[in-house]
Amino acid sequence: MSIYPTSRLRKNFSKALKIIPPTNFLQTTLKSYANFLQMETAPDARENFGLQAALKSIFPLKDSTDLLELIFFSYVLDPPINDLTECLTKDLTFEAPMRIALAVKLHERDKYTWEKRFRDLKREELDFETIPLMTERGTFVVNGVELVCLNQLPGPIFFGPNQGPTIGAAKQPKTFKTNGQWPGAGASLGNRWVQDVGYLFASQYKVGLENLKTEIIRRLSGRDPEALWPRDLINPKLVAKALKEFFEDRQLFQPLIKNQPLAAINQHRRLWVQEPGDPPVRADSEGSTAPCGDLYGRVNLLDQPLGPDKGPIAYLAACAQINNSGFIANPFRQVQNGAMAQPINYLAPNEETNQKVALATAKINQKAHLTQQIVAGQVNGKRTDIPVKEVSLIEATSFQTLALNPALTPFLNLDNYSQAINRSEILNQAVPLWRAETPLIETGLEAAVAQDSGLVAVATHEGIVVEANASRVVTKTLKNVRVIKDNAFRVYEINEGQRPNLGRCHSQRPIVKPLDKVRVGQALADGPMTERGELALGQNVTVAYMRLGGSNKNDSIIVSERLIKEDLFTSIHLTVFEIDARETKYGPEEITNDLPHLKKAALAHLDSSGIARVGAEVKAGDILVGRLTPEGQTQPTKKDTSFRVPFGVEGLVIDVQALFRDKLSKDSFERRLELEKARDELIAQRQSATAKCQKALAETLKGQTLLHSVRDPRNKSIAIAKNQVLNKRMIKALSPSVWSGVKFKESQNKNISAKVNDILTRYQEAVKNSRRLYDLKAAKIQGGDETPSGVMTRIKVFVATKQKLAVGDVLANRHGDQGEVTKILPEEDMPILPDGSPLDVVLNAALIPGLLNQGQIMEAQLGWVSQVIGQNIGQLVDEGDPDKLVDYLHIILNERDFIRCCAGLSGDAISRMANLSRKGLHIVTPPIGGATNGDIAYFQKIANIPSGGQIELRDGRTGQRFKRHAPVGVTHLFKLDRKAVEK
Predict the structure, then answer these.
(1) Is the predicted pLDDT of residue 164 greater than 70, yes or no?
(2) Smallest Cα–Cα separation from 602: which of 576, 581, 630, 624?
(3) Which of 60, 213, 430, 580 makes the best surface tag, with the fewest CB within 10 Å?
(4) What is the C-alpha separation between 271 and 313, in angstroms, rounded?
């Protein structure tokens, strides 16, 4: 995936040869759990790790006489009964039914020799509870809640000779607990490997299996062997109990922050540095934040989460990877005699020891040679100067020592460094806005963060868009691109409305249109807090740092009424109301719209069933659900207990969900639709199994000669005469079942019949499993929904409300600075720029020297340059002269950036791309080693902006000029998930 999408023009100030994206940590998590389950591997071909190793670790089991034995053969995971959407909607767990094949093996002893000999084998396949499945976002859904499993980095481990981390195997290296502290050499990352989600699940599963083992041994004793079957020995609830306890561990499992892509991906990059169950460690405890040398570029201890997790939580550095052995690797390029190698190598801690590493800010010429005689560098995490001839490695990028949040902060090196890093956690608290913009001044990671979070729909194949709407995007694969056979179309489902999380609602929006060409990794639909597939925390606004009447507080912010009128900082909040109809001692409560004591206007929002319609605009006091409760025994009456919108809530009903315990309460039409959907899935699964079987048979039997004729089972006629040489068309024309027992003439392949039988066995198993799954779904549909005890019907009404920017809200920037909105002024009362346009935001000038964050001033200056250049580009696009536009772009962009953005494009295509830069040219400057004062001064001259960004302003209320010039610019602000009064 490229982190420089060609859909935008970009000016890049990075001094490095290439900015590499952060590790797609979701893929690491997905791969780890996939290896644990081995779902895609045939049962008899699974390797001895993960779930397979856990099951084999307790079997076989024998009784005290050594004549009775319980043997494990394999396990099978069926498709989930409930799909992911249903689990999120109905508070269910996303899991798959699991079956295991076991056998009781009986022996007997010769009465003369006392030798043990085999007597009988009783084999059967048993239902073994269920096992959780992982979603595409690397999460688990438990009772409707989406959870993230943190990776664990326990105490140091020490290996004997020729040993390495034996993850999932029987022997484990000795682990020394350190209670989250980092005590010297023993805590080196060279002796600490990450226990990922697959390892953690395997360990917990073994706990449950050990409990099961004890129960099996107990049941083996004193039983009649002749009447004993595997089902008499197995109690799978013991394993299910262990998994339930595992999910209840809130140290390792956290609810996913669905609607904040940066916070979501940071959850996957967290490391829990304690053993489960250990007491919390204070962040200021001795040694808890004393880093060892090999933490450099691997683990960031300064960027800490806020709240009780501070201390035992650390973050992977922005570019760190976890290698196959579980160690955290750091990206470098090899250097020899000052010449750099292009490939990036990820080195484990022990591989980096004593290496002399040059910093990525070192000067490099076009031939990738270091041009200085002595460069700044580090050895074992300690900064030092190194002669260029002694340099063996160079950092892959300048911000690889940072965690993800500070790596998204431009000009970080000009801020109060430790304060800015500590405050960078504030980015995770940004509220998803109704409409958000990507920052004009980027660090180069915005696209990678958004797309790796799983909240953006991304193209998996190159193609052309043939359909794009609110529900899906369909692409047709280009003819010259290799794709899966017989499948030229790709369908990408668009989530129109996601289940709420932390009081927010979000959906995806397609950003492509028919006839657009798309490439692999290109964003097709935006999610929350993204624009054109890139991270969009807030808005780019024109600001000035100055004092204005009434803004005496250092963190005071004055904003223009324009921001409220145009909903620039408006967020959509979601409130979920749950209404239950219970069984009372006088009878069941009734959900109805038949409330005769109310006027017709009071029932205007209700449908025929008594529930608020989707799309209804409701306010405090309106009825959301009509309900009557029976009361009185001698004189039965019904009391109106309808649920009304509480005070302070006003919004739009966007969704309604209903759960019915009694199957008769379900609408017959709804149940019929659900059954038809399940039946369609059954047919599709059978067709897929048939197609796969026919394909396998065709590959196996083509060229074989029939010994006897083959009859069509539908009409008993001869379909293929004997002595015919089979081809693929003949084989695919018949049902797979007809090939059972068919004989062939001698051929080079002597095992042809065995292969055919194996293919047919797998086909019959697939058909049987699909029917079994359908029966389970049908029984569930006809049997009603799961509801709490005593609840006959549960109604959920989702009401979305708009919250505009208001006094008391807190705005922040990426440098960790935040302030309270104290005044909202009309546009005409805001300070006015020389061109007559009013400012958007006034920030207190005392904010700069007080927090020593000069980086925000640099961002504002460069943002103003970006805005003016964007306006110039827009004017050239309107003039309709592509040649003139290209000439201007050559002035603004260097040759490298122009080739990256515009190579191979026609003048019209360049104009269409440039049209997206009307609001500002996107500029990339890394947090360290980016644009300099000289770079900004040069572009300020091109954009005709005063050097230093100081400008004279006029008071919009009086028209008088302010006495002092004020720093002015364009900066990226976002709204925090709290108000000042709540701090």
Answers:
(1) no
(2) 624
(3) 60
(4) 6
Q: What is the DSSP letter of 611?
A: B
- Listing DSSP states for 517-552 in one string gives EE-TT-EEEE-TTEETTEE--BEEEEEEE---TT--
pLDDT of residue 175: 41
Say which residue the tokens 């709420």 belong to: 500
Q: What is the four-CA torsion angle of 526, 532, 538, 541, rounded to 10 degrees? A: -150
| φ, ψ at 934 (rounded to 5°) | -65, -40
Judge contact between 932 and 14, C-beta under 8 A.
no
Euclidean distance between CA atoms 521 and 508, whole angstroms: 17
Report which residue type is found at 266.
N
CA atoms within 13 A on the CB side of 974: 27
Question: 565: which 2 tokens?
Answer: 């009128």
CA distances 499 to 84, 292, 578, Å, are 11, 42, 14
Closest among 224, 47, 242, 243 to 122, alpha carbons compared = 224
Identity of residue 830: M
DSSP type of residue 724: P
Instruction: Say whether 54 sits in a helix, a strand or coil.
Output: helix
3-class DSSP assignment, residue 581: strand
Q: What is the pLDDT, as a whole number, of residue 71? A: 92
pLDDT tens digits for range 962-972: 888 888 999 99
Query: Which residue has 């015919």 as its token pair?
Result: 724
Sequence-ordered strand ranges (E) for 303-456? 313-316, 321-322, 328-336, 339-347, 357-358, 374-379, 382-387, 393-395, 441-442
Q: Would you say the C-alpha torsion 224, 225, 229, 234 has a positive or negative sign?
A: positive
pTM: 0.80
Largest CA distance in the chain: 118
Tell the burial category of 174 from Cβ atoms under 10 Å away from its Cβ (0-12, 13-18, 19+): exposed
Residue 60: asked if its preceding bond is cis (omega within 30°), the reply is yes
- Token digits of residue 881: 């002269």
Give yes or no for a contact between 301 and 314, defined as CB atoms under 8 angstroms apart. yes
The mean pLDDT of 431-439, rounded to a whole number, is: 90
Show Cβ contacts of residue 664 under 8 Å, excluding neighbours closer than 6 positions. Answer: none
Q: What DSSP character marks residue 49?
A: S
Please, are residues 99 and 76 in contact by the beta-carbon 8 Å criterion?
A: yes
Helical pair 882-892 and 855-879, crossing angle rounded to 10 deg: 160
pLDDT at residue number 719: 76
DSSP 8-state symbol, 746 = -
- How do residues 777-826 score in pLDDT, each as one tens digit? 777 666 667 777 788 888 889 888 888 999 989 999 998 888 889 999 99
User: What CA–CA distance (Å, rounded) separates 74 from 57?
Assistant: 13
d(CA 265, CA 871): 34
Q: In one letter, which amino acid is 207?
A: V
Rounded to 5 degrees, what angle do the CA atoms 768, 769, 771 make?
A: 65
Least confident of 558-567, 570-579, 750-759: 750-759
Arithmetic mean of pLDDT over the chain = 81
The token pair at 179 is 């209670």
Cα(194)–Cα(243) distance, rounded to whole angstroms? 21
Taking residue 163's Cβ as centre, other Cβ atoms within 10 Å add up to 11
Distance (Å, whole) CA 268 – CA 930: 28
Strands (E), 469-505: 472-477, 489-493
> How many residues are given for the chain?
983
Q: In terms of pLDDT, which residue wins out, 440 or 450?
A: 440
Is residue 290's pLDDT more than 80? Answer: no
In percent, the amount of the chain with pLDDT more than 90 equals: 16
CA–CA separation, 230 and 90 (whole Å): 35
Q: What is the pLDDT of residue 442?
A: 93
Q: Where are the alpha helices (DSSP H) in 90-222?
A: 197-220
Chain position carrying tokens 């490939």: 343
Q: Which comes out higher in pLDDT, residue 667 or 101?
A: 101
Beta bridge partners of 821: 557
